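# step 3/5: fold
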Amino acid sequence: MADAFIIVAGGLTAGIITREPRGFRFYASDAAFTPLEGRLFRSTRAAGRAAHAALTTISRRQRRPEQARA
């Protein structure tokens, strides 16, 4: 069984997760995902969902200035 997995969100390589006795540890490979750095997830799927959620949060923040101009 593999001990490391790549997490991709929105076409970006968010990071890798490594298997640990209690779950999977996240290591960000893109600055956008540093809030997840070091977090422990119960499954690979949970880590992927968190990366997608982080990406959604980032895209919402980036859209706010444009909406303010309108």
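# step 4/5: annotate
The chain has a mean pLDDT of 86.
# step 5/5: archive (pending)
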